[in-house]
User: What shape does this take?
Amino acid sequence: MSAVFQLTGGWIEVIAGVMFSGKSEELMRRVRRAMIAKKRVQVFKSHLDDRYSGGVYAVGSHDGRTIEAFPVDSSTQVASRIDPLAQVIAIDEVQFLDAGIVALANDLAARGRRVILAGIDTDFRGEPFGPMPQLLCVAEVVDKLHAICVLCGSPASRNQRLIDGKPAAYDSPTVMVGGAEAYEARCRACHAVAKADPAQLRLDQPAEPQSYFEIKTSSK
Ligand code: ADP
Ligand code: ZN
Assistant: This one.
């Protein structure tokens, strides 16, 4: 698909989807192919996710394969480390970066770079994650990947956060670093979020879920 854009200068590709859907595998596949094509490639990865690789200097997939990457935790850091000669810029775990990544990705594409971004599109509540909505809109090419629901075997589109084996509450923070939580890939029907505690107020989102339906509380 991206071959279509090779005549047009730069462009943005987004690989979106749930955890375990193969985003990192797909990003690594595209990066390796760009290297085979003798392109100058730079890979970045959010600091926040070092769970599946040999540390923060590598992009790793759940199958254990890795490639080298610069660790970053802000769009400014990405901007300051861009190699002016790089033709392809890839960023994994882009959902953790700030909104400035949208302007930076657009700027790089406008300067003729191929920008490959991989990120989780929805948080554990099933709501849009960080800069992903804007990135999906400005990208020329979007691929949405699915994992397999661990409960029913259907295509999974949701990240199930479990704390002590139970669905996490709606008002728990979007990003829990170093927490005791676990994640599973689940389909919409099997996804569960415990109801918001009205006495608690989240700082990053309105306290009430923006839904006309009651939040599901069942854990299958
Ligand atoms: P992502 O970057 O989207 O989290 P990865 O590329 O790191 O995904 O890992 C994808 C790999 O995870 C799959 O190829 C498969 O081997 C493994 N995997 C583990 N659990 C699941 C699941 N529930 N559904 C699909 N793949 C899974
Ligand atoms: Zn399911």
